Amino acid sequence: MSKKAIVMLLVIALVGASLGMAGGAKEGAEAKPIYLKLGLESNKESAQYKAMVAYKEYAEKKSNGRIKVDVFDSGQLGVDKEAVSMIKMGTVQGWDINTSLLSAIEPSFMIFDLPYMTTSQEELVKILEKNFGKFLSDKLAAKTEIMVASWFVRGPRNVYGNKGPINSPKDMAGMKIRVMQNPIMVKTMELLGAKPVPLAASERYMALQTGVVDAAEGVFSLVINQKEYEVAKFMSMTGHFNTPNCLIMDYRVYKNAAAELKQIMEEAAKECQRVSIETDKAMNDAGRKILEEKGMKINDIADLTPFETLVKPLHDEYAPKIGKDVMDRFFAFRKEVRGK
Fold first, then answer.
1. What average pLDDT does this structure show over 196-211?
2. C-alpha–C-alpha distance, residues 57 and 69, integer Å
3. How far is residue 234's CA from residue 229's CA, in Å, rounded to a whole number?
4. Helix axes 312-322, 183-191, angle to 10 degrees
5. pLDDT by residue (tens digit) across 47-64?
6. Distance from C-alpha of 263 to C-alpha of 246, rounded to nearest angstrom
7. Coil, helix or strand for 281?
8. Do the bridges between strand 34-39 and strand 94-98 make them parallel or antiparallel, or are there none, so unpaired?
9. The pLDDT of residue 17 is above 50
10. pLDDT digits over 91-133, tens only?
11. Contact 243, 98 (CB under 8 A)
12. Residue 9 has pLDDT above 60, yes or no
């Protein structure tokens, strides 16, 4: 065999070996387990924590351990305001966060801050499942490489206090209502005829007790946890805000996962969302019963249309910031859900 032929054979052998090594590395990378560190500020009693544990259990079982998930509750890893930066740095791979905190990054999420966009947990869930949720997630991922994996819809906020019941906006005229220091919340109460009083959450109980405010607003669990049923006699189901939380995750991890593991992550996210929504609904049902047993008088409002009409100028004001296409898409889905 000539010297030239020997050299050619050696080259072919080396190329083949390098290709084999590359193939082996790829297979090894695909086989390498995915580790997801998920965090939240809420404690183990929250619906979000239970939902994220459901994600962990589903993903680990279906992947036979190729996906490993740890859930850290009660702010062990940080706070909500740091969530996006932590995910970008790879410190964590997922976080439970309120959509209000995402609106500074992607303004379309501000749509959930507006009043009377939806009036029930069920209605918002149906709208999100009509691809509106994916639409927002895609917008966020395109800008930040962070995706919304699951939506945590807790149900709307209601007015409670010592003047009531509320059955129409007229009943709110001049009512001093504690609100968060949020311009949309302040403007909403003004449009409904009330007098908003921005106060820290820590001051709410005393303000109700001393008459500094006539009322406050929030969800059942808030009133129960803070024992504010001791200083508030009425709750009216005004349903004025319905701002969800969501599980945001590192899109880069999902994008680079093997196809089979991607599918498992998608299925785990759906299970996570299902558990969150069902748990929150059960908590809300139980919460209403608990408050009624504590002596609070709770009333449903037959027609919320007058409330919705009064706050429409706020929708028009924020539409340019949110995006007309986003608003139009949302209202089209809502029309389908409402059947009108």
1. 94
2. 8
3. 9
4. 150
5. 999 999 999 999 999 999
6. 19
7. helix
8. parallel
9. no
10. 999 999 999 999 999 999 999 999 999 989 999 999 999 999 9
11. yes
12. no
Tokens of 295: 């002596």
Measured CA to CA, the distance from residue 149 to residue 126 in angstroms comes to 16
Whole-angstrom Cα distance, residue 204 to residue 182?
15
Place of tokens 């500020």: 41
Angle at alpha carbon of residue 260, lines to 258 and 263, rounded to 5°: 110
**165: cis peptide before it, omega within 30°?**
yes
| Residue owning tokens 């319905």 | 242
Which structure tokens are listed for 322? 């949110």
The answer, yes or no, to whether residue 20 has pLDDT greater than 80, is no
User: What residue type is 316 in one-letter code?
Assistant: D
User: How far, in Å, CA of 18 to CA of 62, rounded?
Assistant: 34
Euclidean distance between CA atoms 280 and 334, whole angstroms: 22
Question: Which two tokens mark 243?
Answer: 């701002």
pTM: 0.84
Here the tokens at position 156 are: 């709307």
All domains of the chain in start order, with CATH: 33-153+243-285 (3.40.190.170), 157-242+288-338 (3.40.190.170)
329 vs 180, more confident: 329
Give the closest residue to 94 by CA, choosing from 37, 11, 179.
37
Bridge partners (DSSP) of residue 146 are 250
CA distances (Å), origin 121, targets 118, 157, 221, 234, 335: 8, 10, 15, 22, 16
Give the amino acid at 189: M
